Amino acid sequence: MPTKRESGVMPDGHRPFHQDHQEPSLSTLLPFRKPSGGVVGIVQVLSSLLFKALVYIFLRWIPTSLASPVIPALYLVYLITSIYRDASIRAAVTSHLANSRAAAARDIQQLADKVEVTDKKIDSKSSDKAKSIENTPGTSNGTQQSTPKPATASYADVAKGAKSASGASTDKVTQSTPSTTTSAKHHDSRVHGFSIFEAIKALVFGSSTRSSRLNFYVILAHTLAFAVFLDSFLSPYLFPSHWEYNLAFARTGALGPTYAKIHVRYPPPELASPLAALNASTSPSLSFDNLAADTSLRNVAQSGIIDEPKPVELLVKYRRALNKTEEEDAFRKTARAYGKNYHASPENLWLNGPIITLRADNDWTATALVHDLWPSTTYEWALSQFVPEKMDLTDEVRIVEKFLVTDSISRRNFFTTWPDPRLSTYMQSKTLGSRKIAAGADSVVDEAEIHVEANPLEDPNHFTFASTSCVKPDFPYHPAQFWGWNWLLKLAGIGTESGGISQRNRIPGFDLMYQRAVARRQGSHPSLRFLLQLGDLIYADVPHYGGPETSAYRKLYRNLFASESFRKVFERIPVIGIYDDHEVVNNWSGKDENSEELEAFAPANTAWKEYIGDANPEPLEQGENYYTFQYGESAAFFVMDTRKHRTHHTAEDDEDKTMLGYRQKQDLYRWLAAVNDTVAFKFVVSSVPFNTLWGGELDVDGQKDSWAAYNTERLEIAEVLRYVPNTIVLSGDRHEFAAVSVHDTITEFSTSPLSMFYLPVRTLSQDHGDGKHGIDKLLKYLPDGNHKWSEFEVDARDPYQPVVRVSVQIDGQEAWKTTVIGKSLRKTQGGIGGLVRNLLESLGFKFDFFFKS
């Protein structure tokens, strides 16, 4: 029989169990080890790394068409492996927790078995200092005992509770005591928890962790990246502009001294909805030839539905925009120079120009030529239409003429015709004489004093234009333009300005060009007379190719012209150009390997003409796309078509391999002969580089897509150009800038992209192509920058030293400038006549018509 002990005192001098004993912590019983992922874990990490790398490259560097199958496949692989790994880790965690709790129960049972207990009650005074112990209810003598109060708990109750716990389930064990419950929760939190290092590691490598919550966030981050990729990939088809009824514009195309081209797109509003046809007055489909006899107006009003839209006819109206006295005086002087006695009136009447007929077959686009204009004159122009109008108090409908005004087409549009080339010699003698008088016979003329206005409107010997190529909206991709939260940014007033980061269908290159050429001019005319776009204005095959369908190409052009970035430029600066490869398909040739015509060219050419080609100067040959134009006697341009007639690049490079074709090359030679002695600078325009310095191991297209693959024909043309003074070649395509000298007499400026990627890998070298032999010499190489264009200020006011000042703009800043000094085309005059002429010019007299060179 056990001896009596004092209340609260254990044998052998031990302190009471309920005072000093601390139950074992569950978190120290079994350390958790995450199961090895094996092959699945390796695939998960590799797919995550490749997925994130390719998404970044696609959004910031190369939006290649290869991304469409690869990136979705990698995302799917990562998603499947992540779900599998998360499930396996979760099962391991559950098993670990069960084992840990079972081990804890065994420890408690072993501890309880070692305790000697009596039925004596623990003194309440001592028990007040102890922690309360919740005993598991049991039975005694077949009757249920009530749960004893903590103050009367006994050692027997503790032992019985431990024994019952050993046979109970794991869940009941964890509820046996408050301390046990706390330990279990702490252990669970440690098993499910994660550190900052683990979170960073999971985000970087995409690996699963023991935390289900962290795994969810990592998968969510990958899903968000995939959504951004889809947004960029599908962006041309996410805008309403790709629907044919949602785009309207009016712009000025090619200009000359006496003509202007007007380019219009205006779909009838009834295309948007059959309900719009009820308001037929807003969109008439009337013929100017038979307005009075048109009986369909009331039928349209009664039916409210137009089954098939009729052609829309718009009338171009124009008038001289002379608002200042000095402008009127200048106009009178010009009029007298033409031998006409004409006095301008501030109240100029509108003149009727050509009729533009818009049809569905042409995607509601058309071009009209306004001719018989005055040189160096600013004109205001607008579009008008005849609309039905209901008479008051009667049912009679009359036809009235109204100006077409929409959100996209302005009531007031302007263009300025080019100066008369016949005044070039007169203006040169005027400028030369005044400069000599101002400078004196022995002094040096300060070039800064001469260079005041780089783009005057009335001097045929002085103007500025720009060239560039390669345009893709929304590239490089900015996270702020992601569909969804860009609206939240707009509501917060972030990036809402024109060209702001939250705007969709944005082209930053055009935004920068507008700021420099228009906005900074503070109301003056633009600093550029025209923009020469050298191809890749759309990317039909990047990242998604819609097939050789005209409708697919038209969608991309509508998306381009719907961009507010582009609209700001083409409404103020005439844009002309030529196509390259991406307007059709990458690296295309007019003839394939079997010398057959490319199937995609016909539909692509139709769309290109509707939106670009028809607004260009007239082609030299019927049905062709290459053309020429001239600005005064200071510059002449030959814009080549380097795609339609080229032999496939895989053919042997001999005299039969051609890029231009026989007829175009002969037209080029005839043009060179015509302008050789009559124009100061000759600009030969090629969509691909004329030099051979691009190439290298990593440049796949540099040698096969440029003139380097057609070197036999290139050397033939270069041999002709080297004897034509003041020849400059303009090109693009390579997404870099380079200035190259060919034969020491031909200077090439290759500039791109305006809004596209550039490669961090250098692809141009003096050791490539004919650079090894010294024919092509590198002058300047500027590869970096997503937004590039070059500005050319042609200044032939001094006929003895014409110059072209070149300014290279990269990301909105001037990156490099140089001056090309041309040779004088005036023949040296000797004898008495030459001395008299020089004397009169030095005195400021303008008698060039007496002394013809």
TrEMBL record:
Biased composition annotated in UniProt, kind: Polar residues: 134-149, 171-183
TM segment ranges: 39-59, 65-84, 216-239
Keywords attached to this entry: Membrane, Transmembrane, Transmembrane helix
Pfam hit, one: PhoD
Annotated region described as Disordered, given as residue ranges: 1-22, 122-186
Origin species: Testicularia cyperi
Biased composition (Low complexity): 159-169
Protein name as it appears in the record: PhoD-like phosphatase metallophosphatase domain-containing protein
Organism placement in taxonomy: Eukaryota, Fungi, Dikarya, Basidiomycota, Ustilaginomycotina
